[in-house]
Amino acid sequence: MQYKSNFWQDFIYLNVAMMKYNSGLTQDPDKDDPITSLPSQWPFLAIGTRMNGWFDNNIKIYLLGNPIVWWSGTMSLGIFVCMLAYYNIVRDRQQQLLLEQEQQQQQDQEQENDVAQEHQSLQPSSTTSISTKMTDQEWDQFKFIGKITLGGWILHYLPSFIMGRVMYLHHYFPALYFTILLHAFLIDHLLHRLAQHLMGSMVL
C-alpha cells in the first residue's frame, strides 16, 4: 500500500524547518563581516556582496547589481502607489460628476438646450478626460498587475525584517524580480496613456 502524505502538513513542516535552520545562521559577534547588509539597504543598492573567498590566489568577484535596473525598480514601487491613489480619486470624482449630470437631466427634461449646455459644463476638461479616463477593463488590469507585482514584492521582502539570520544582498533577488516586472508594466501603461493623449489631441 502506497503512503500518501498530507500536502499542508508537509508544507508547514518544511517551512518551519527552513525557518529554524535559517534562524541559526547568525553572524559571529567576534567577526567583522563587511559584506553583510540590512534589508533596508537592498532596495537602494547601498552595499554589494562578494561571490568568492578573499584568498590571494582567488579571482575577486564583487556582486553589486545594475543601478539603473535596481533604482528604477524601487522608484516604480512609489510611482505605482501614487498612480493608484490618483486614479482612485479621479474615478470617484468622475462618478460624482456623472451622478450630478443624471440628476440635472431628470430635473430639466423639458429644457433640452439648457440640459445640453449644463452637461458640457459638467464634463471634465479634454486633457483630464484623455489622460485619466480608463475603461473598466483597463482599470481592472491596472489593479491586477499591482496585486501581483506589489504584493509579490511585499511577500518576498518584508519577511527579511523578522529573520534572525545573517543577511546578504542576494536575499533581495526574489523581491527584485517583481520590481522589474512592475517597472516594465508602468512603462507600457504610460506609453499607452501618452498615445491616447496624442490621438485625442489630434482629433480635437
According to DSSP, the number of beta strands is 2
Q: Mean pLDDT, nearest integer?
A: 81
Radius of gyration: 26 Å
The parts where pLDDT drops under 50 for at least 5 residues are 124-131
Q: What structural class do helix, strand and pairing data support? A: mainly alpha
Measure the end-to-end span: 75 Å
Portion in helices: 55-70%
The 3D shape can be described as: elongated
Spatial strand order of the main sheet: 1-2
Number of domains: 1
Please outline the major beta sheet. Answer: 2 strands, antiparallel
Helix and strand succession? HEEHHHHH
Q: List the total number of helices.
A: 6
Please state roughly what percent of the residues sit in beta strands, choosing from under 5%, 5-15%, 15-25%, 25-35%, 35-45% or over 45%: under 5%
GO cellular component, one term: endoplasmic reticulum membrane
Pfam family, one: PMT_4TMC
Keywords: Endoplasmic reticulum, Glycosyltransferase, Membrane, Transferase, Transmembrane, Transmembrane helix
Enzyme class: transferase
How do you describe this structure in short?
This protein has 204 residues and is mostly helical. The protein has 6 helices and 2 strands; from the N terminus they run αββααααα.
